[in-house]
Automatic annotation (TrEMBL):
SUPFAM superfamilies recorded: POZ domain (SSF54695)
Coiled coil: none
A Gene Ontology term for the protein's cellular component: cytoplasm
Origin superkingdom: Eukaryota
Any one GO molecular function term: ubiquitin protein ligase binding
Involved pathway(s): Protein modification; protein ubiquitination
Pfam families: BTB
Identification of the protein by name: BTB domain-containing protein
Domain BTB as annotated: residue spans: 38-110
GO biological process: proteasome-mediated ubiquitin-dependent protein catabolic process; regulation of proteolysis
Lineage per the UniProt record: Eukaryota, Viridiplantae, Streptophyta, Embryophyta, Tracheophyta
């Protein structure tokens, strides 16, 4: 009995320490940053005449989003100019999305529903899907069971299996999650006519 109480106290102390560590990290991540220290700005598509910038940091965006990482890592115009324009989204939705990338929390403002953020993220990932980010996007979508993103990524992957098989991302996925790679191959072979194998 005494050891059980001791174990419970120890577990509570450890949980409190974990919570304190997480709160310290969250406080750091949510610290307001002056716009002048940002190294990238994002613009929503809802105000073409007087766009309002949403300042951010490339390191944070690249760390939180494989799609944004692909845009910022490669020599795409977004990386070179430090400006990213996001289509089909309001300024409020873009601010909420960037806030979510920084804090992993949804800050509810007015009556803007969370589903809108989810829909925006789905559209963004699908519209920015390319060969460079297809495997990481597929992996992310499978982890979160995002059917529309899974389907879009799988279509692109299976159409380009020969090109992808020689890439580092493919080799990493093969080592990290062979089951996921097996799913990709099952989808790939399911497109072949029965007489072909």
């Amino acid at each position: 009995m005494r050891s059980c109480i001791s174990c419970q106290i120890k577990a509570k102390v450890e949980q409190r320490k974990r919570n304190e560590d997480l709160n310290a990290k969250l406080a750091f991540l949510t610290m307001p940053q002056p716009a002048s220290f940002s190294d990238v700005v994002l613009f929503a598509n809802d105000d073409d005449e007087h766009p309002v910038p949403v300042p951010a940091h490339k390191a944070v965006l690249a760390n939180r989003s494989p799609v944004l990482r692909a845009m910022l890592d490669n020599e795409m115009k977004e990386s070179l100019s430090g400006t990213i324009k996001i289509g089909d989204v309001s300024y409020d939705a873009l601010r909420a999305f960037i806030n979510y990338l920084y804090t992993a929390e949804y800050a509810s403002t007015s009556n803007w529903p969370v589903q809108h953020l989810k829909d925006f993220c789905h559209k963004f990932l699908v519209s920015n899907l390319n060969l460079d980010n297809s495997l990481s996007t597929y992996t992310f979508a499978r982890q979160h069971n995002f059917k529309s993103i899974i389907d879009a990524a799988l279509t692109l992957i299976t159409a380009n299996m020969n090109k992808l098989a020689s890439r580092d991302e493919y080799i990493e996925l093969k080592e990290r999650d062979p089951g996921l790679l097996l799913e990709i191959y099952e989808a790939y072979f399911s497109k072949w006519p029965k007489w072909a194998y």
